[in-house]
Specification:
Elements: H1 2-19, E1 31-37, E2 40-41, E3 46-55, E4 58-62, E5 67-72, E6 79-80, E7 85-89, H2 92-127, H3 133-166, E8 168-170, E9 175-177, E10 187-188, E11 194-199, E12 204-211, H4 215-223, E13 233-236, E14 248-252, E15 262-269, E16 281-287, E17 294-298, E18 303-305, E19 308-315, H5 324-329, H6 332-339, E20 342-355, E21 358-363, E22 370-374, E23 384-387, H7 393-401
Parallel strand pairs: 1-23
Antiparallel strand pairs: 1-22, 2-17, 3-12, 3-16, 4-11, 5-7, 5-10, 6-9, 7-8, 9-11, 12-15, 13-16, 14-15, 17-21, 18-19, 19-20, 20-21, 20-23
């Protein structure tokens, strides 16, 4: 009987224990994060554009006469002066043609002199009606023909002399010559064989592409309607070093590319040390001209999702407020504890220019918002967070001003 009573007591205890409400779940632990207070500030930065160095003048050297290369008089890669002799083409054929043209000119000039003497005689006789009219007319016509033959012979001499001169090829302007594309003994064809390329050195052009929406700003700078600081256009060389000189707008292309909505702009930079080379890939830095403070935040605070950008704002908003029977079972102390927690609220933002480790935000957050900058991987929208750092905004603003 005692055993039965004991079993009943044990079973009853188990039953009563099972009927009690489930124990409260453990409180979710708050994720430790660092925050940054957003504050509008004046920002100094550059808009950057990929660019290519070009020569203001560049020509391919070709020959106007055909023949063998008999002399190469400029070293590859050397600086040349305007009028300097660069190449010589075999001139024997053209020298012979020139000599022949000169000899022919002497013959026709002699014929013209003879025709003039005959014409003068017949003119004199005709004034006394002492010669037949037909002989007089023929003498005048013969003289005119002789004069025309002389003019033709003189043109032939000029042509032969020009061809002879074309056998010597000179530099069209001061500049640097490239690698010779022909060797001694190579035959060159008229207007087809490129012997070399020559380009100017100083100044140099730098071309870059901008969106058509930015065109008005650059046109205002070019026309002088917009104030332009001395350091408006600077250049980063391929090794990421800053070029010593600054540039100025030279040309804005005549048309926008309808397929890309972009337009080419050309800057001109002095190049006294020949540091800029044709074809060099550089980066044009345009000092930003936007007026007024802007919001700059650390780039590590930004989360990208499907091409959109977000940040987590620290808010003391309660996400799941207890209600109904649960509210009655919670104590007032527990409710107050829930209300005191910070939550990470996800905000969609739009980004502007990247400035080193920071980025400009154009919309989505407000001045004074506290955003999460560390510990982002361990939170999601609505996560409870605890701030473990002092506000880092002041130190970041000091870095931006440098």
């Amino acid at each position: 009987m005692n055993r039965v009573l004991l079993v009943v007591i044990v079973l009853g205890s188990v039953f009563l224990h099972a009927c009690k409400p489930a124990a409260k779940k453990e409180k979710a632990e708050a994720a430790a994060v660092n925050v940054y207070t957003v504050e509008n500030a004046d920002v100094y930065y550059f808009d950057k554009y990929p660019s290519t160095v070009q020569a203001l003048s560049q020509v391919s050297i070709v020959s106007n006469v055909q023949g063998y290369v008999t002399a190469i008089l400029a070293s590859d890669g050397s600086k040349v002066r305007k009028g300097q002799l660069l190449y010589k083409i075999d001139e024997r054929i053209y020298k012979a043609a020139y000599d022949q043209a000169l000899a022919n000119l002497k013959v026709v000039r002699g014929s013209e002199a003879q025709a003039k003497q005959d014409a003068d005689r017949y003119v004199y006789l005709n004034s006394y009606h002492a010669v037949a009219k037909q002989l007089y007319d023929h003498a005048i016509i013969t003289l005119d023909n002789a004069k025309n033959q002389t003019r033709a012979a003189e043109e032939a001499v000029r042509t032969a002399k020009t061809n002879l001169n074309f056998a010597n090829i000179y530099a069209p302007f001061d500049g640097t010559i490239g690698f010779s594309q022909v060797k001694l003994g190579n035959i060159v064809n008229v207007g087809q064989t490129i012997l070399n390329t020559i380009s100017t050195n100083n100044p140099m052009a730098v071309d870059f592409i901008v969106n058509e929406k930015q065109l008005a700003s650059f046109e205002a700078i070019q026309s002088g309607r917009k104030a332009m600081p001395d350091s408006l256009f600077t250049l980063l060389l391929p090794d990421n070093s800053l070029y010593s000189a600054t540039g100025k707008i030279s040309v804005i292309d005549r048309a926008v590319d309808p397929q890309t909505g972009s337009i080419r702009i050309r800057l001109v930079f002095p190049n006294p040390k020949n540091e800029l080379k044709v074809g060099m890939s550089c980066v044009v830095q345009v000092h930003n001209q936007d007026n007024g403070p802007q919001m700059v935040i650390p780039g590590k605070a930004v989360v990208e999702q499907m091409g959109e950008y977000f940040v987590y704002v620290a808010k003391d908003t309660v996400i799941n407020q207890p209600s109904g029977s649960d509210t009655k079972e919670k104590s007032a102390d527990a409710q107050n504890d829930t209300k005191s927690k910070l939550h990470a609220i996800q905000r969609k933002i739009k980004l502007g220019q990247t400035i080193g480790a920071n980025v400009i935000v154009t919309s989505g957050i407000n001045d004074g918002d506290k955003i999460v900058v560390d510990g982002i991987q361990s939170i999601h929208d609505g996560s409870i967070i605890s701030v473990s750092n002092k506000d880092s905004s002041s130190s970041n603003r000091e870095k931006q001003g440098k």
